[in-house]
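Hi team,

Below is the intake form for Leishmanolysin-like peptidase from Paragonimus westermani. Please confirm the fields before the structure is written into the shared record.

FORM ID: S-0412
PROTEIN: Leishmanolysin-like peptidase
ORGANISM: Paragonimus westermani
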Amino acid sequence: MSGSILKRAVVSKFTLAFFHDSGWYDVDMSQAEPLTWGQNLGCDFVLKSCYEYMEIQKRGVRNATTSPWCNESVRATEVTPSTDCSDAKNQVFLDRTVNNELQHYGSDSICINHDPNTAWLSSWRSKVTTFPTIRATCHKVSYQAT
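The structure came back. Fields below:
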């Protein structure tokens, strides 16, 4: 299972196996989704700390990436958006992605909750995309006196 704010969360085979082994759950393994985070990064990625993994990468092959970890502490604090629609800082994160939901963050935004039993649908140029994990979105609102 993966935590997620801007990306789609995943329930992996590992998570379902953990639930099954706890003895509290019956699981359907066919419902597991691929979890590619950390894929093919080797034992050091799993067994070492984040810092050790980055140091190994930096000492190894020239120009080796420390991905998925960053090596700047400032960047680590900058990449965590909140779930508050009125927090204008979130717009920076949204501007870095494709804004399929036409969301807007700021003091002029409100949170819209969606039916948890119905997937969000987006249609563009005759192509329909389903977003089953979207449960709430932030949208700009303006009020007019009548």
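SUMMARY LINE: The helical segments are 13-21, 42-47, 50-59, 73-78, 90-95.

Thanks, M.
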